[in-house]
């Protein structure tokens, strides 16, 4: 059985391929990437595939049995790009697609949700067996801000006291591999999130504990947070989006307590303290 992974040189894709090699022969894995030369270190076959260039996809998917469709990172273009992949998968005779979506994509207040929901609907109507992995937030989305927090003496955000059930990418990658390599997942949608939730104040307290410094959490209005992010060098649109996702968190978008992720991976999800420790290292 040939398993292909889109976006295989991305942060999630690399982890999936690495973990997949522990479960199936490397010869049965295909990395689908825009630049195959950048995938040489993955140790598997690499084929050129670009979500936005349909002419690359038929050859890329030839002979593939199961496809992990890792969602595109081009917000606003995702639905069209995913459509291109699904159509090519149909032509190539792909038997099964596993798709990385967003936690509660059908009800989430996050502006990321509609494109995911559109792809989910198309996948269900495709005639191909499907599984949807609704990934919660990546802990790295927040631990990536530890360095600025240390520089500024505070962790800033607009999530208020929101409970966040994030897990590191490695946990979600492990879940994807479990679904790709075991039966019984067709037609299922999994809401994936960490076992334990935290607030950004909890995160700031953990940073303080591990660094021996007083790093409080400062909740600020969405517009002020977006302006601060822009001032730190982020493009205006990206800064506005990140600030809006924090507000979405305050509306419950990043919380889930069903523990489906730990059941899929067969162990507790990685605790926040370990993610902070890894980021500080």
What report would you give on this structure?
The chain is an alpha/beta fold. The protein has helices spanning 11-20, 57-61, 78-92, 113-124, 140-143, 146-152, 169-180, 200-211, 222-231, 236-250, 260-265, 272-280; strands spanning 3-6, 29-33, 45-48, 66-69, 96-102, 129-135, 155-157, 188-192, 217-219. The chain is 42% helix and 15% strand. Strand 5 (96-102), helix 4 (113-124) and strand 6 form a beta-alpha-beta unit. The protein starts with a strand and ends with a helix. The mean pLDDT is 97. The longest helix has 15 residues, at 78-92.
Q: What's the helix and strand layout?
A:
Layout: E1 3-6, H1 11-20, E2 29-33, E3 45-48, H2 57-61, E4 66-69, H3 78-92, E5 96-102, H4 113-124, E6 129-135, H5 140-143, H6 146-152, E7 155-157, H7 169-180, E8 188-192, H8 200-211, E9 217-219, H9 222-231, H10 236-250, H11 260-265, H12 272-280
Parallel strand pairs: 1-2, 1-4, 2-3, 4-5, 5-6, 6-8, 7-9
Helix pairs in contact: 1-7, 3-4, 8-12, 9-10
- Provide the gyration radius in Å: 19 Å
Strand order of the largest sheet: 3-2-1-4-5-6-8
- What characterizes the major β-sheet? 7 strands, parallel
Shape: globular
Instruction: Please identify the structural class as seen in this structure.
Output: alpha/beta
Distance between the termini: 39 Å
How many beta strands in the DSSP annotation? 9
Supply the number of helical segments: 12
User: Helical proportion?
Assistant: 40-55%
Element order: H for helix, E for strand: EHEEHEHEHEHHEHEHEHHHH
Please tell me the overall pLDDT: 97
Strand-residue fraction?
Answer: 5-15%
């Amino acid at each position: 059985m040939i398993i292909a992974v889109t976006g295989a040189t991305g942060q999630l894709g690399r982890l999936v391929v690495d973990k997949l090699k522990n479960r199936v022969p490397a010869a049965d894995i295909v990395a689908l990437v825009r630049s195959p030369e950048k995938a040489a270190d993955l140790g598997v076959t690499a084929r050129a595939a670009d979500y936005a260039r349909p002419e690359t996809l038929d050859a890329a998917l030839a002979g593939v049995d199961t496809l992990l469709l890792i969602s595109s990172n081009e917000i606003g273009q995702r639905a069209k790009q995913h459509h291109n992949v699904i159509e090519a998968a149909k032509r190539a005779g792909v038997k099964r697609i596993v798709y990385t979506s967003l936690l509660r994509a059908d009800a989430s207040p996050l502006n990321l949700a509609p494109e995911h929901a559109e792809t989910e609907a198309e996948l269900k109507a495709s005639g191909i067996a499907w599984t949807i992995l609704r990934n919660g937030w990546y802990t790295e989305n927040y631990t990536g801000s530890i360095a600025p927090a240390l520089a500024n003496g505070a962790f800033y955000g607009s999530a208020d006291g929101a409970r966040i059930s994030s897990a590191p990418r490695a946990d979600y990658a492990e879940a994807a591999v479990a679904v790709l390599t075991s039966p019984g997942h067709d037609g299922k949608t999994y809401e994936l999130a960490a076992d334990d939730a935290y607030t950004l104040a909890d995160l700031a307290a953990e940073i303080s504990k591990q660094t021996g410094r007083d790093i409080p959490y400062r909740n600020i209005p969405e517009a002020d947070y977006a302006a601060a992010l822009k001032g730190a060098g982020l493009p205006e649109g990206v800064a506005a989006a990140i600030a809006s996702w924090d507000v979405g968190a305050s509306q419950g978008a990043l919380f889930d307590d069903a523990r489906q992720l730990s059941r899929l991976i067969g162990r507790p999800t990685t605790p926040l303290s370990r993610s902070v420790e890894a980021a500080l290292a």
